């Protein structure tokens, strides 16, 4: 075997080794990327994930009316906080401009129709957990298309039976506002 054949054989073996390492590295990177997307895709919570926002190009302004509390039991903080949070979310996450004019492209209004506690869990023949159910009826008026859509958004919130309703309200207030706002926003601006 002459010197040039030995060099070719050494070069070929180095190339094969290099190629195998590249394939292994590429495979590792591919698996890592796939796993990353599988993990992050499955870890999102339904309540806080948003689909693509769907707003017609002709819609530029929105008016969010005060969401009245018409439930038999009234939490006095719920209506103003829910209305304010919904306004903030629409302005920060859409291209729509907030207006107080009656000639807005979209007018969003609604009312709280249900705010009621019930027993949700019993342990040793005693109440262990309670559930607070809050329902909001939302009305979307598209003034450009002369069309009105109505939706009922309902959400349950669990709390310990050792708490009074007033104590539970204090502890659940942020979850109630955030959860209802997210559900209303998703219903209005996403196709689900």
State mean pLDDT (0 to 100 scale): 82
Order of helices and strands: HEEHEEEEH
Q: What's the number of domains?
A: 2
* Structural class estimated from helices and strands: alpha/beta
CATH topology of the largest domain: Double Stranded RNA Binding Domain
Helix content: 40-55%
Q: Over the alpha carbons, how many angstroms does the gyration radius reach?
A: 28 Å
**Number of H/I helices:** 3
Write a structural description.
The protein is of the alpha/beta class. It has two domains: 3-43; 55-189, Double Stranded RNA Binding Domain, CATH 3.30.160.150. It has helices at residues 3-42, 78-93, 165-189; strands at residues 61-64, 68-69, 97-98, 106-123, 126-142, 147-160. Strands 1, 2, 3, 4, 5 and 6 form a six-stranded mixed β-sheet that branches. The protein is flat and about 85 Å long. The termini are far apart.
Keywords, separated by commas or semicolons:
192 residues; Double Stranded RNA Binding Domain; 3 helices
SSE layout and pairings?
Blueprint: H1 3-42, E1 61-64, E2 68-69, H2 78-93, E3 97-98, E4 106-123, E5 126-142, E6 147-160, H3 165-189
Parallel strand pairs: 1-3, 1-4, 2-4
Antiparallel strand pairs: 4-5, 5-6
Helix pairs in contact: 2-3
